[in-house]
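User: quick one, fold this
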Amino acid sequence: MISSKSFCQDNVFPSIDRYKYYGLDNKFYISFMPVSLIDFADGSSLRFSADAKVYKGIALSAEIGYYTYLSDYFAKPNAKGIIIKPALKYYLWKGNKCNGPYIGLEYQYKHQTYFEHDSISVNSAGYAKTYKMTRYVNCINAKFGYLNNLTRRIILEMYAGAGIRFFNSSTDLPQTEYDGILRGEKYGNDMNSGYQVRVLGRHTYPNISAGIKIGVRLR
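Assistant:
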């Protein structure tokens, strides 16, 4: 009996404390996405979101972000623009609480401008030029996530999703110069992100997303 009593004391096993936060109902919280600051493919962005419970186990989420000067170090130099991501979440908790695992449907809108620098050859004349790219993106994602209360106020949210991405890209570079861009491995523009950031026109691609959010529970 003495041994059992000892094992129940918080000061003996402090880690047991965290289990009492699993049943919290997170009616409203705000969060920040740290991983978006080091997105090498899309550029560095600062993103915040707010989640509010609207019914039993159902919550609405709204995320907004903008690109930062850190984008100069990634695939899209001097990227500017906004990201808006509303989402509907349904939590699978038996008590209709906004906690634990959830499934969701998310829409994303993005307007982005950035600059690329390439070597160009037109009529046998070669030169280097910096030009502007503009991109609009609409995306639909199905998500699966998990919301975990680390403390009564601090929240850790992890998620992954898949969907379809529609984008439309244009440039201020004349078509003759765009066609004259010298491509290849040594120019860093023939594959992966180096190629994708230079694509023009309307395109549809599959979309995969994953992320971590750190939040503060207000209600």
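User: anything notable?
Assistant: Helices lie at 2-7, 175-179, 192-196.
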